[in-house]
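Final report, section 2: Outcomes. Of the targets proposed, Pimeloyl-ACP methyl ester carboxylesterase is the one most frequently requested by collaborating groups, and we therefore present its record in full.
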Amino acid sequence: MHRDLPPTRFVRANGVELAYDSFGDSAAQPLLLIAGLGTQMIMWDETFCERLAARGYRVIRFDNRDVGRSTWFPQAGEPDLPALMRRSQAGQPIGGASVPYMLADMAADAVGLLDALDITSAHVMGMSMGGAIGQEVALRYPKRTRTLVSIMATSGAPGLPPPRPAALSMLMTPTPVDREGYMQRHLDAMKTLRGGIFPEEEKYDVPRAARAFERGVNPDGYARQLAAIIASGSRKERLALLRTPTLVVHGDRDPLVPIECGMDVAHTVPYARMVTVRGMGHALPRSAWPQVIDAIAEHSVWTEWR
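The predicted structure is given below as C-alpha cells.
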C-alpha cells in the first residue's frame, strides 16, 4: 500500500457509518467525490485526487452505503431486480418494501458527511451512479452545492440509448465472493467498460482489485444499489429547473452509459457545459486526467457567478 495514503476515517451520517479520507489543505475549497455502482472510494485514484488537491481543493472521497467499509444492509436481503426492471419499463411506481433505499437517501448520506465535517457547501463530483447521486444532491440541497460535475452519468430519462449488450451483461452478472473470481471479474469488467481501449491501464487493475477485495465484497449491496437506481427513475424534469453551475464530462465510446445520456443532461440543465473525452469509455484513463482536471478547475470559477 502507498505509504502516503491518507488514513481512512469514519463518521455517522444520516443514520449510517461512512468511511472516508481526504487529500489537500483542510482549509481549501471542498470537493466531494461520489463513487459509482458497487465501487469503493479507491476507484477515485489517489494520484488523481492528489492532482486535484494541487489545484486548490480539499478532496474528500468516501464509500457509499452498502459498499466497502461503510454500513452494509444485509437485513434487507437481495432485491428482485428483474421484477423491478419490468415495473420500471412498464411505467409502474416502485418503492416501499421493494427497495431498502433510494438515490435520495444516498444523497442525504453525502450531505450528512459534509455536516459531520462541518462543511457548509462543497463542489460535488460524481461518476456514473455517483453522478446521479450528485444530481440528487444539487437538486435537493442547492445551498450545499457550489458546483456540480456529472461524469458519465444519465438523467434517468426514458428513451435514452441503453447499454451495449456486453456492458449490460457485465452489469447484471453477480459478483463472485472468492478472491480469484472477484479479481477476474474486476479485470474483465474494466476491459469491457474501457471498450478494449487503453490497455496501458490494465496494470493498475490488479492492485486496485486486490485492495477492494480486502476492504470488503458485498454482492447483495451491489444489487441493492442497482435497485435504488432503477427505483429512483428519471430526474429530467427536475434537472430542467436546476440552477447549480453544472459541468458534464462524458466519453464518446462509453458502452454502459452512452454519450447521448450525458448530452441529455447537458441539454437539460440550464447553462450546463459539456466536455467530451475522445476515445474514453466508462472509466477515467490517466491520459484523460489533464483534460478532465483542467475542466473541473475552470468550472469552479462559476462559484463566483452564484
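The first helix runs from residue 46 to 53.
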